[in-house]
Amino acid sequence: MRYELLCLASASAGILSHLLYFIRGNKAIHAPPWILVFFLVAECFLYTRSIHYLGALQGFLTATVISLCYFTALFTSIIIYRIFFHPLRHFPGPFFAKVTKFYSPWMARDGKLHERYAEFFETYGDIVRVAPNELIVLSTDAQQKVHRASSRCSKQDTVYEVVHYQGYKNLETVVDRDEHRSRRQVWDKAFNTKALEAYETYAREVVYEWLGKMASLQGQPVNTSLYSLLIPFENMGRMGFSDNFGSIQKGKEDPMLHYLEVTLGSIGKLGAMYWPIALLNAIGGSSDHVAFQKLACKMVDKREKIMDEEKEDILKYLIQDYRSKEPKAMRDHMMIYAEAQALMVAGTDTIGAALAFAFYVLARDPQVQKKLYAELEPLYGRTMSGEFANHDLGEAEAPYLNAIINETMRMYNPTCSNGPRSTPPEGLEVDGVFIPGKVDVYVPIHAMHRSAKFFREPNKFIPERWTTRPELIIDKRAYHPFLLGPHTCVGRRIALIVIRLVLAYTTWYYEFEFAPGEDGVAIDRDAVNGQILKAGKLECVFTQRA
Ligand code: HEM
């Protein structure tokens, strides 16, 4: 066949493969490796065929041009379809976001994807197309319809498909509803009343380590963002694995925290573009990710060796289920490894971000500290002599403390651009607007929390909006720091226990302020959203109360 005809046939094949294959369903995981294999095979085939007639160099060039015709036609067809014919074509959004998912890593490049989403709502309205098949929605109606228990939206065909440990999913990434339900039962059991009492004791133990550290650093600048991370890390060691890392005493990041940050950061930087994650998994993962997985597995192995039923921790419940005659969920030992990784990821950085920003809002305003101290006075020693108890720090007993926590998590939510859900095949109606089926939808927490649609003066820290000034909240349903529905945060209660105790004890024993030279700008400016928000640096000086 003549050269021109071959090019034409190749281009036609490109268009046909789009219309017959790529256009149907989500091909984000399988298509890239296929395209690569196809290219190499086609190139080799054409090359061996043309080398005979044209010689090595000319044969190679001819083969390349013919195969490029295929890809140029394929991608041109995809782009034209996405702009003019895609079911989401009428939704507004940045032009390049409609054309290619490669726009997502660009949006997420500086770790400010959550802020960019909030800006998009200002520019484009309440529903914005942020990728060829993705929408972000600013609406309490969407929040309910996407996340509530009866929702037909699912995690299938989304980024969750590629997050696993050697093929084993964890509670958060499992996409099958029934599988999720049975795992959730095991996890929920790990947060029963008796277990929570034990976890509170661990949390208090960690608080005392933190108080001890502060006593040794009196008058010196303390890297408060770092310690805000070490506190939940230590807590997770005890509550998750009955282990003690000693990181607060050392005063520096444990390697585990480093691996955690790099692993999460690289996913965050991709802006939920997930075929590179699938590809990386297929070739064994990045060295940091593998190191993180190994450490988490080692912690499981260590816990299993000393399997002590008396010791309350989350692993105890997962292992118990695995060792039972008829496991509810943990049918394979690998599942425990996968869950242990989820535990480290979900339970450390989240509390870390909440604490860092809580210290920030307290340190910058002595009046807030003073008011909190006054509230704490009658609560100190109320149930336990010489101690604070979570029981006495609830919303009814300590409204101002909880208002500070709520307001901090409203403004600086740790999971600020939470995960997507795929709409059911029949589509979904949100605020009277029809969203087609099989579309990835996000209801981004940060943008919801900072929207003037739901909160008056949304960018101002006003804890009183949760107490004496309720008029500053237009729609309370928009506040969902732990999400809602079947995937609501399983660690919500322990997260609140840790945050309450840390803030109560610290404020009780110490007055704190920005360290000399600290202007309080970096914590927010340099905060990076790598799936979970990581606060920028903040240095404070802590002075023991007289
Ligand atoms: C301030 C602290 C925390 C915040 C703001 C937070 C927030 C969230 C959010 C928003 C989700 C839903 C994510 C999604 O599906 O898009 C979630 C899920 C989850 N969280 Fe948390 N979390 C916190 C602390 C914790 C802690 C301490 C643990 C562990 C003990 C934990 C374990 C989990 C797990 C395992 C899930 C998956 C639940 C499921 O899919 O059923 N979280 N969290």
CATH class of the largest domain: Mainly Alpha
| Quaternary structure classification | single chain
Instruction: Give the low-confidence spans.
Output: none
Lateral strand order in the biggest sheet: 1-2-7-4
Q: Please state roughly what percent of the residues sit in beta strands, choosing from under 5%, 5-15%, 15-25%, 25-35%, 35-45% or over 45%.
A: 5-15%
| Helix content estimate | 40-55%
CATH architecture of the largest domain: Orthogonal Bundle
Structural class: alpha+beta
CATH superfamily of the largest domain: Cytochrome P450
- What is the fold-level CATH name, i.e. the topology of the largest domain? Cytochrome p450
Number of domains: 2
Gross geometry? globular
Characterize the main sheet.
4 strands, mixed
Rg estimate, integer Å: 26 Å
User: Kindly state the mean pLDDT as a whole number?
Assistant: 91
Task: State the total count of DSSP E strands.
Answer: 11
Cofactor: heme
Pfam family, one: p450
Family: Belongs to the cytochrome P450 family.
Binding site for heme: 489
Verbal overview:
Heme binds at residue 489. Keywords: Heme, Iron, Membrane, Metal-binding, Monooxygenase, Oxidoreductase, Transmembrane, Transmembrane helix. This protein is of the alpha+beta class. The chain folds into 2 domains: 3-85, no CATH class; 159-544, Orthogonal Bundle (Cytochrome p450), CATH 1.10.630.10. The protein is built from 21 helices and 11 strands. The strands form 4 sheets. A 4-stranded mixed beta sheet has the order 1-2-7-4, sandwiched between helices. Strands 3-11-8 form a 3-stranded antiparallel beta sheet. The protein has a two-stranded antiparallel sheet with strand order 5-6. Strand 1 and strand 2 (134-137) form a beta hairpin. The longest helix is centred in the middle third of the chain and has 31 residues, at 333-363. It is globular and about 90 Å long. The model has no long low-confidence stretch (mean pLDDT 91). The structure holds protoporphyrin IX containing FE (HEM). Protoporphyrin IX containing FE binds at residues 171-172, 184, 342-343, 346-347, 350-351, 354, 414-415, 418-419, 481-483, 487, 489-491, 494-495.
